[in-house]
């Protein structure tokens, strides 16, 4: 039985002479793999390029690798071919999706979030703002971030550390906790909860905070059990 879905290409791996194995992210299915055989036409070349948004007609088999039947390009996001900074930012967001383990019920909202962030890349001078915000919003969707001005343990002292998604004070911090100053805490909350791209553009993210976000994201993804 053939099925159709709108999806975006996250990975495209050459296979044999004219085939490609795609990792797709769709609104209905989340992540899935598809093999496209005998690629020769310009449309198929575009459709199987990373970050191309399209409609894919496929057939499920016994395994996890589905067979491509037909497809249509909806948006090739061609600006990524000439804008290296945007391409690298898109790749970072794709890796974040591939490394996360989001619940089935949140796939649709994450898909729409990814597409909207991808389309915003050309308008952002500071691409890292979108990447950092996207990572924090993935964690928010997973339900593993619990920002609180007061320590999640004692409910009294000011939170100055993050550990496995929890907000902790100096007294209750754990080994491996990430120290966060007041200005960084405010920026993290903006990146996580903000719904305005203009506000995201105005954020000032230091290299140190970027490193903390990357560490925080990796820690929580590693501690999450895959749900797919």
Model description:
With 228 residues, the protein is of the alpha+beta class. It has two domains: 2-76, Nucleic acid-binding proteins (OB fold (Dihydrolipoamide Acetyltransferase, E2P)); 79-223, Up-down Bundle (de novo design (two linked rop proteins)), CATH 1.20.1440.120. It has helices at residues 42-47, 84-99, 107-120, 127-142, 182-193, 197-202, 207-223, and strands at 2-15, 19-26, 30-36, 53-59, 65-75, 161-163, 166-168, 178-179. The chain has a five-stranded mixed barrel. It has a three-stranded antiparallel β-sheet with strand order 7-6-8, with no helix packed on it. Helix 2 (84-99) runs parallel beside helix 4, helix 3 runs antiparallel to helix 4 and helix 4 packs parallel to helix 7. It is elongated. The two termini are 22 Å apart.
Q: Brief overview, please?
A:
By secondary structure, the chain is an alpha+beta fold. The protein is built from 7 helices and 8 strands; from the N terminus they run E-E-E-H-E-E-H-H-H-E-E-E-H-H-H. The chain folds into 2 domains: 2-76, OB fold (Dihydrolipoamide Acetyltransferase, E2P); 79-223, Recombination protein O, C-terminal domain (de novo design (two linked rop proteins)), CATH 1.20.1440.120.
């Amino acid at each position: 039985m053939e099925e159709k879905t709108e999806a975006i290409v996250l990975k495209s791996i050459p296979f044999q002479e004219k085939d490609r194995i795609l990792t797709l992210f769709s609104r209905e299915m989340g992540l899935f793999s598809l093999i496209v055989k005998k690629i020769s036409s310009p449309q198929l070349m575009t459709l199987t390029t990373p970050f191309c948004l399209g409609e894919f007609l496929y057939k499920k088999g016994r395994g996890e690798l589905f067979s491509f039947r037909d497809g249509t390009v909806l948006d090739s996001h061609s600006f990524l071919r000439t804008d290296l900074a945007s391409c690298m930012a898109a790749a970072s967001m794709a890796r974040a999706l591939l490394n996360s383990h989001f619940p089935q019920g949140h796939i649709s909202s994450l898909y729409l979030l990814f597409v909207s962030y991808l389309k915003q890349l050309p308008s952002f001078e500071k691409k890292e703002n979108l990447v950092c915000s996207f990572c924090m919003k993935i964690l928010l969707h997973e339900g593993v971030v619990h920002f609180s001005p007061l320590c999640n343990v004692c409910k009294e002292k000011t939170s100055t550390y993050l550990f496995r998604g929890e907000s902790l004070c100096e007294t209750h911090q754990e080994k491996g906790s990430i120290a966060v100053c007041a200005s960084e805490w405010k920026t993290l909350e903006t990146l996580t909860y903000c719904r305005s791209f203009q506000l995201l553009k105005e954020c000032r993210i230091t290299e140190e905070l970027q490193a903390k976000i990357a560490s925080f994201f990796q820690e929580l993804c590693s501690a999450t059990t895959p749900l797919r």
